[in-house]
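Posting this for the archive.
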Amino acid sequence: MNRSSKRWMWLAFFPMSGFFIFYILPLSYAAYYSVLDNSISKIYVGLGNYAQVLQNSFFRLSVSNTLELLGISVVLLISFSFSLALFVHSYQMHNGFLQAALLLPFMMPSVAVVPIFELLSLPGSIRLSVYGIFLWKHLGLFTVLFVAVRSSIKQDYYELAKMDGATRLQTLLGITFPIMLPSLGFMAIIAAVYNLRVFKEVYLLYGSYPDKSIYLLQHYVNNQFSKLNYSMMTASGMILVSCLACALLIGYLAYRRCKAK
């Protein structure tokens, strides 16, 4: 092994050690406590905690709400940001000032945003407020990312299509969309990860026990922690981690398949 390889190994050691200490090690402890009856007697119960969590009506409600919020929010965000990026790029509006303005909502702290949406929210529109917060906060960021991807496509493709008499719709469906499809899949995964973080705003707006329509999986985990019910908390957390790992694996395989084509 040469000196250059050793340097790279030492540089990789610090982030990998941090990942192990702050992620892998706590996750291992969570997996350990998820198969115990409680943190005091520590009697092994196997998958009993997992069965109890899956039978809990509030857990099933939280999973249903989380998946519904995730699916609708990601579709709306990708659709709006992709369309806005094409509009910005077509009119050559992607300058530094516009990029800063688009990124500003994403950089604003949640504590400053929540009071505004609390004033604007109407009775009976609780779920719409959650969608509004997520879209307002992330629409600019994903628009900037899509503009960067669109700008990376060679202009020669569009010039050749124009010479052949292709319309804008044909170039969109035949050139832009197929080339950007792998990026769309990757952006959808990133959007899903960001959507799971919207719990912070929901918690600040509606507290630990919100309306049933926005009772999320993080509410269930957080409430189990407040009750010191660590076994149920870790079991539900491990179920969440397993589902996220499977979703990321499926997304990664789909991304590689689209990129290979």
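The first helix runs from residue 3 to 33. The domain at 50-260 is CATH 1.10.3720.10 (MetI-like fold).
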